[in-house]
Structures are given as structure tokens and as C-alpha cells.
């Protein structure tokens, strides 16, 4: 968590770009690159505080929307308060962009959330280049965006989220995938549960 926080602080202070906000979204939500690149403005629901993952983006072949990795990947991901404010300000700024101005709200909602300079989703290479630069500034080991999925799983598990919620937030098709993370964090989970039990007994005694 210490490295996660260092990286977050560097990202927040960096120059605004699609890579920055896409990386922040992945950092907080743990969603896949193909999912973040397919997000449109309308996929972010501020009233219900969720991001809807309903599609992916095929950057290699068709340069168009495609199905998610699995049926289980279609989901609604809860937006933490910190990210909620970041996305509110970001979307407000891009709605004022000449590329987005439109009288048709449906047209605005269908615009890519993280476009590059030619209006299509930014590449995985661009995001990873940005992340690695931030890692160097934060003086932590360099990682790629996929590491954020592992970090999000760790955080959900250690925060006490149950396995079903964790599985659905990450879009794991098989609960066995989620269970592997629980097993890998066995000592940390054991310590957390010991603390919870001790606190419970203190409260009732």
C-alpha cells in the first residue's frame, strides 16, 4: 500500500492527459486495459457511483468495440470517493473540449472517455509508458497497468470484502481465480481476521 500511495501521489501531480486519467481509473478500479479503453462518457454513473463495464475495445485488429473477456466480465464496478471527484472534474473538462461539444446528449455520452489526439482510445503502450515514468519519479519498481488488478484484489481482500463481491468487482469468470488471491494472502488475511475477532470479543465483553 505504501508503494501504491507513492505512485498515486505522483500521478495526481502529473500533467493532465488521457493516459493519466485512464491510469488513475485502472489504479482505483483494477479493470483491464481493454475495458478502460472501451469506456465512454455515458458509462460513468455519478448518481449511482458506478462504472458500467459492458464492452471491450479491440485495438489490434478492428479498432472497434468488442465483447468483454467473458460473460462474467460484464459488470458494474463501484467508484471510490477519491476517484469519483477525479472523474467528475475530468469529464467536465472534456465536455468543454471542441472535440466533444454537441447538442445531442446521446452523442456526448457515446464519446470515448480516454481518447488520444486523433479521437480513438489511447493505446496500452501509451498508458504503460506513462505509468513507468511515474514509477521512476516515485522511486518504486516499474510496473505495467496489469499490476493494478493484482493490487485491487489485494486491497479488496485485506479490506474484508467477501469473495463474491471481489469476484464481481474484478470480473473474474471463475471464483477459483479470485480464491487464488485469497490463498496467496493467507498470512495477511489470518492477521486481519485475528484482529477482527479480538475486537469483536472486546466489544461484547
Describe the structure.
The protein has 205 residues and is mainly alpha-helical. The chain has helices at 2-13, 18-29, 33-36, 81-95, 105-109, 124-138, 147-159, 163-170, 175-184, 186-204; strands at 44-45, 50-53, 56-58, 64-66, 75-78. A hairpin with a 5-residue loop joins β3 and β4. α2 (18-29) packs parallel to α7 (147-159) and α8 packs across α9.
Q: Could you outline the blueprint of secondary structure elements for this entry?
A:
Blueprint: H1 2-13, H2 18-29, H3 33-36, E1 44-45, E2 50-53, E3 56-58, E4 64-66, E5 75-78, H4 81-95, H5 105-109, H6 124-138, H7 147-159, H8 163-170, H9 175-184, H10 186-204
Antiparallel strand pairs: 1-2, 2-5, 3-4
Helix pairs in contact: 1-2, 1-6, 2-4, 2-6, 2-7, 8-9
Summarize the structure.
With 205 residues, this protein is mainly alpha-helical. The chain contains ten helices and five strands; from the N terminus they run αααβββββααααααα. Strand 1 (44-45) and strand 2 (50-53) form a beta hairpin.
Amino acid at each position: 500500500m505504501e508503494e501504491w500511495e507513492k505512485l498515486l501521489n505522483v500521478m495526481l501531480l502529473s500533467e493532465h492527459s488521457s493516459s493519466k486519467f485512464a491510469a488513475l481509473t485502472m489504479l482505483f478500479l483494477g479493470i483491464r486495459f481493454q475495458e478502460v479503453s472501451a469506456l465512454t462518457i455515458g458509462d460513468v454513473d455519478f448518481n449511482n457511483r458506478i462504472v458500467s463495464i459492458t464492452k471491450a475495445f479491440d485495438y489490434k485488429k478492428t479498432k472497434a468495440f468488442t465483447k468483454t473477456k467473458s460473460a462474467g466480465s460484464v459488470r458494474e464496478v463501484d467508484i471510490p470517493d477519491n476517484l469519483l471527484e477525479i472523474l467528475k472534474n475530468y469529464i467536465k473538462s472534456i465536455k468543454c473540449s471542441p472535440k466533444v461539444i454537441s447538442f445531442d446528449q446521446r452523442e456526448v455520452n457515446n464519446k470515448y472517455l480516454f481518447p488520444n489526439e486523433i479521437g480513438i482510445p489511447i493505446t496500452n503502450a501509451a498508458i504503460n509508458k506513462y505509468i513507468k515514468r511515474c514509477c521512476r519519479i516515485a522511486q518504486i519498481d516499474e510496473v505495467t497497468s496489469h499490476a493494478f488488478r493484482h493490487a485491487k484484489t489485494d486491497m479488496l481482500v485485506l479490506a474484508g470484502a467477501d469473495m463474491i463481491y471481489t469476484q464481481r468487482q474484478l470480473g473474474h469468470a471463475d471464483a477459483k481465480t479470485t480464491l487464488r488471491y485469497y490463498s496467496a494472502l493467507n498470512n495477511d488475511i489470518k492477521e486481519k481476521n485475528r484482529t477482527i475477532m479480538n475486537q469483536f470479543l472486546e466489544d461484547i465483553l
